[in-house]
Write a structure and sequence with these properties.
32% helix, alpha+beta, four-stranded antiparallel sheet, 5 domains, Nucleotidyltransferase, domain 5, 14 helices
Amino acid sequence: MKVIHPVALFRSHVLGPLISRDRLERGELKSTLKELASRSYDIPGSRNNHLSEKTIEAWYYAWCRGDIDALTPKTRSDRGQSKLSPEHQEAILATKRENPRRSIDRVIRLLERRGKVARGELKRSSVHRLLQAHGLSRPSGAASEPEEHRAYLAEYAGDIWYGDVMHGPQVPMNGKLRKAYLVSLMDDASRLIAHAAFCPGETALDIEAVLKQAVLKRGLPKKLVIDNGPAYRAKTLQDVCIRLGIHLVYCRPYAPEGKGKLERWHRTFRDHFLSELDHSRLSDLSDLNARLWAWLEIIYHRSPHSGHGLDGNTPLQRYQRDLPRIRTLGALAEQIDELFHHRVERKVRKDGTVSYQGKRFEVPYELSGKRVMLVVDPHVQKVLWVENDNEESLGAATPLDAVANVNRKRRKPQSTGASSYPDVDPENEVELAYRQYHGHTKEEK
């Protein structure tokens, strides 16, 4: 039995409504092609799920010429053969073997820097075929994903930022090796990284910390698109964006907007930063971040980018082109710390205290029994003050010092000059306490 190539089988399935007909009426081919192009397909070896009319039309005419055999993909006659000189082949293979995690772009850049080849002499396709022939191309299942192309692009820098988290290396934290997480905010139009930092976690608080530094350095985006995970659904992050005038958008589950650009950024980061990182020089998280920030400003932001809309410009050049349009913080800069404060609702106890993360804080005693908003700076874990629902301050919140309260002079209700209990000796504290506690007089018993 003749074995049919899976791709040819798929193409014939797509062409079913056309090739099953003995003849087509005038105009029927065009209308059928349009209808077939509107469908979604599970395309073998591709992330796309749509086909163009021209592609389907080409398959149809190929079928007319040679039936299903004509739908079988043709292999290149020079497949596996390299047109590179022996000297260039040897240099490419040696550079790749030095560090198997190096990407094709990194290999070419190193050879140009070392003077082994002229700038622009090596083509990515040629290097890829050579590495593939020698079994040195990136193995399937590697951490990096292939670039996913998108057809849209923000018109100006600052229109859209994307936020995402990537698992990073292990570094010493508090005496133990722990995984660090890279939190990044990328500008869509320029691919500039507004800010990125390695954090001990991937929570909404980590996103807020990175966002705070990003807006200080790069101004305010109009829209911030982040993952749909529960950590990012925190009300605190939503409040921060409202205060800053940023439209917060959550990606649709399993179909995140901008995923292609973020995956490309993560791929670049793995290939150019993580693959060259010397872990022996890292003593803590700050060491790792110091190298990250230096690499971003000196290497990534100043490297020409071939992405759609950049046309060989560096991310920094593309971003600076739109500087007059960037929304600056302006007067908000003086309130930047307050804009990132968290507000948590608490009920004041009868002793004038509230709790936060297992600790107790004293607030004005007249608030006892009332519900208040406790204002905290989560980035330094400091409780600041209490306020009402209209964000009007109701007084300070200070750590409870139970020992000092032993000698603290307490406020007492002002006396009206006459005892509320005329039948009780005003100096008899026991009886007075009894009446006050139970709220009745002797005659009421």
